[in-house]
Amino acid sequence: MGFQIVVFSLGSEEYGLPIEAVQEITRLAEVHPIPKAPDFVKGLIRIRGQAIPLIDLHQKFSVQSENEPEFAVITEIDGNLIGFAVEEVKEVRAIEDVSPPPPLVHSSFIGGIVNLPDRMIIQVIPERILEEQEVDHLNRLVG
């Protein structure tokens, strides 16, 4: 039995979030900086009157790219809405088979690898992208 993922890009890599974790996808507009925020926090975005912290996944995943994020993928973590800044949202794709990460890959947020004939998609677990103390810090900054 398969499931669906939202596929997005950072640099030359593709990542996937489970579709049920995605609240919405929006084009990035104005981002308001947050004083004393960690480097991976781009700032706040406003969606329907609500301020939502925007996490730069380039910074968080240490991905180099010439391109700036153009989209925000909005998800909910521990009851808090959080936006993930990504370059491009490519597709919603049905997935049948996910391989476990290779033994030497020790990133807690990687749920598995989707091997397709022409490409590879890294499946991401959104609740594990931020560590517990990072979520607490964000809550103090914006709460």
If you had to describe this structure to a student in words, what would you say it looks like?
With 143 residues, the chain is mainly β. The chain has a single domain, classed as CheA-289, Domain 4 (OB fold (Dihydrolipoamide Acetyltransferase, E2P)). 11% of the residues lie in helices and 47% in strands. It has helices at residues 57-61, 132-142, and strands at residues 3-10, 13-18, 22-27, 41-47, 50-56, 71-77, 80-86, 88-95, 110-115, 120-124. The strands form 2 sheets. It has a 5-stranded mixed β-sheet, with no helix packed on it. The chain has a 5-stranded mixed β-sheet with strand order 3-6-7-5-4. A hairpin with a 2-residue loop joins strand 1 (3-10) and strand 2 (13-18). The N and C termini lie far apart (40 Å).
Instruction: Tell me which CATH architecture applies here.
Output: Beta Barrel
Total domain count:
1
Fraction of residues in β-strands: over 45%
CATH topology heading: OB fold (Dihydrolipoamide Acetyltransferase, E2P)
Please report the total strand number as a whole number: 10
Helix/sheet category: mainly beta
User: What is the count of helical runs?
Assistant: 2
Mean pLDDT across the residues is: 91
In sequence order, what are the helices and strands, one letter per element?
EEEEEHEEEEEH
The CATH top-level class label: Mainly Beta
Layout of secondary structure:
Elements: E1 3-10, E2 13-18, E3 22-27, E4 41-47, E5 50-56, H1 57-61, E6 71-77, E7 80-86, E8 88-95, E9 110-115, E10 120-124, H2 132-142
